[in-house]
Amino acid sequence: MIHLLVHEARNLKISGEDTVDPIVEAKCFKVKKFTSAKDDIGYNSLIQWNEHIFFEPTDLKPRDIHNGKLSIRILDQQMLKNAVVGSYEIDLSYIYFKEKHAIFNQWVGISNPTSQNFNELAGYLKISVSVIGPGDEQIPLTDLSGLDHTEKEVMLLPPHISLKYYQMKFRLIKAQKLPKMDTFGTCDAFVSVNYLGKQIRTSVITQKNDEVFWAQEIWIPVQYPLVSSRIVMTVFDEDQASNDVVGSMSFDIKKIIELGIENGEFPWLWKDIYSAPSGCSGKYTDEMDAIPEIASAWRGRILMQVTAEETENPEMKVRRVDQDTIQNAANHFSLKWYDIKAEIRQGICLPSESKYKIKIKIADFETVTEKPKKYSKGFCYWNHQFKAKRYECPYQSVESMADVILYLMDGDSPI
Asked: What CATH number has the domain spanning 2-131?
């Protein structure tokens, strides 16, 4: 259960308006809930809600907590369409691993990612949040007994912290080996990311000769220090009826910023795309499509560079990559040879009595064992040693190669 207590807000402002009619929107696991609305609030006013919002998702698993987010937006209620005052996003894992699985009386600075001046704060919101799993002790968010709440722990963000702003640039040069999502036609690919409630995407490029050449970069504004540091980008195949998910990639913003501070350089890499296997559907398929860390199918790779540069005025946009950058990336177009060796001994606790085979897959490389030499209920004995197979690919080191995925095969189908 996710419990949000919206305490109060202050110093809310929206461009061109003297007052706002604020309402708080909270979104978690695709469910939106709202506080009551307030009327005619001036900039210097203190708005008090003290309202509780509960999210009670079913079948919540540890990975849901690890990858879940709580998105909070303050909206200005208007006649035709609500305007965004500001937003903030928190990783559920950040909250869950705090003492008592909660944060109390936490001031957060909100900003509007669609504003021309992203670095200008749009106000302050005070919240308490708890994330409670099965068997966890529940604590009322208004009960602070037994907790040491010092000024350092309950900080006002950002007045008590010197904020920095970074321009994140995701430079996407080209993709390789994207699968066709339809029986007929081509893969008309684009990359999309949802960040602070706003979607931004590249152009749609048709794959030719197993390559999609974008040469575009997605700019995302980041406020640092940050609580929510994970960004997921999704690759789609555009379709007239509905866009099909090819797969997704995840990035740790904090690590990228720290890499730049430490080394001053950002490497080029082939970023691998993962999703659920083809022909599958349902809840677990959706999870794999959205969370590449648990996905079991490789869906291609993208040559890219991710940079972070401190700036006073970060922006959110998509633009073309200049020719010099493309030339710098060209060094990673070359192929390298690797010898792949493997040995499969035996398997136990298998689903049934069957002559299973094992498929080993690394990106677009794969090899399969013969049928087992011995088998019985839940057991197969292969004792299979693969001869070295040569793999030609653009990965510049073993460390940068795609994950090794093992499939248990019943005939030609993985189970």
From this structure: 2.60.40.150
